[in-house]
Specification:
There is one protein chain. It is globular and about 70 Å long. By secondary structure, it is of the alpha/beta class. The N and C termini lie far apart (76 Å).
């Protein structure tokens, strides 16, 4: 007699049985894999994972629990969590609750005990897919019907953005930055504060007139979930303020800048999720180890019709990882220089942003 309590049913009909932790809810989501060795708390609280279930390729998850200071947002955004070995007895003097308790609190289901290596290979070879996380008693036929009936979610940014303006000030500020919240991670705000920026976080649908009324020294465009083409208000904002204020974009913000300036984006086969992606900085020749989390990329050929020049390339698949237009004081990167935990090779980009704002100030 089987002791399995949960199963994952993929839209191709394949089944991965396992054991429950977290919420007992059924959930249909796109499944992606993440190659990070640590940081599961930051990952599931990253708004960029909205509408996705995450397969962790590192085998043991939960062993250091959950700590109050390490969230990347005020909610759990992942739709589900898939792991090999779940540890419900954390060894960490900082922990305040277990991972399963957190997932239960936020109604997010988890499954453990499955062959995550096989599932990761399936996603890598055949591409990202949708799946149902459900009870072990659910038939494959009923599971496939539930997947087919579940609508494909859109406009994810509108569901994770701030509903009102909020502030994060720092001691002895040198600059005032407006951060457009498409799903911003808390550590991005910390990094901007650390380089002397007071940060005003604003909703994604703010108008150009409202941004200019705040009299910022620069505008930051955040990471976020979903198809960048759905973020119409932010694309229009960039078109309206380009050349008038320094612009810095990360992840979704990078894609939005490309779209606003005439480029195109496309969906990757299985995305980039996790740490240790080597990226070449074309301007310096240096290789940066980076942390990434995105399903879409900027089409390099399309940038030939824009003022943007490619500044960074991913050495694993040659996708565009950075672009800039110095004449209009615009630059962006696809990866996450603020990664926590993660490599810190790219923290210089925040200094680059302040240097750009200082240059504009000096010539005002």
């Amino acid at each position: 007699m089987s002791h399995f309590t949960r199963k994952l049913i993929l839209e191709d009909g394949s089944v991965y049985p396992g054991f429950a932790f977290g919420s007992p809810a059924d959930r249909v989501c796109e499944v992606v894999f993440n190659t990070s060795m640590t940081g599961y708390q930051e990952i599931i609280s990253d708004p960029s994972y909205t509408d996705q279930m995450i397969v962790m390729t590192y085998p043991m998850i939960g062993n250091y629990g959950i700590t109050d200071e390490d969230f990347e947002s005020g909610a759990i955004h992942a739709g589900g969590l898939i792991v090999r070995d779940y540890n419900n007895s954390p060894s960490n003097f900082r922990y305040t609750q277990t991972l399963s308790e957190l997932l239960t609190e936020h109604d997010v289901p988890g499954i453990c005990g499955i062959d995550t290596r096989a599932l990761t290979r399936r996603i890598r070879d055949k591409g990202a897919c949708r799946a149902l996380l459900t009870s072990y008693d659910t038939s494959v036929e009923d599971g496939l019907a539930a997947i087919a009936a579940a609508p494909i979610p859109r406009d994810a940014v509108s569901r994770v953005t701030s509903r009102k303006i909020r502030y994060s000030r720092t001691a002895n500020p040198r600059f005032n930055v407006v951060a457009v919240d498409c799903g911003i991670k808390t550590n991005i705000i910390r990094c901007l504060n650390a380089v002397g920026c007071n940060v005003t976080v604003v909703p994604y649908d703010i108008t150009a007139e409202q941004v200019l009324a705040l009299n910022p020294d620069g505008v930051f465009l955040s990471n976020g979930p979903g198809n960048p083409e759905d973020a119409g208000p932010v694309i229009e904002l960039v078109r309206r303020i380009r050349g008038r204020l320094p612009l810095f974009g990360i992840c979704l913000g990078h894609q939005i800048i490309a779209l606003a300036l005439g480029g195109r984006t496309y969906k990757l086969k299985f995305g980039h999720h996790g740490g240790n992606h080597p990226v070449k900085n074309r301007l310096t020749g240096r290789i940066e180890m980076t942390s990434q989390n995105h399903n879409y990329a900027v089409d390099e050929a399309s940038l030939a019709q824009t003022p943007l020049k490619v500044t960074h390339l991913n050495l694993l698949d040659n996708t565009v990882e950075g672009a800039a237009c110095p004449e209009e004081h615009i630059f962006s990167v696809q990866y996450h220089p603020e990664s926590a935990p993660g490599p810190q090779d790219s923290r210089y980009l925040f200094d680059q942003f302040t240097a750009m704002m200082q240059e504009v100030k000096d010539h005002a």
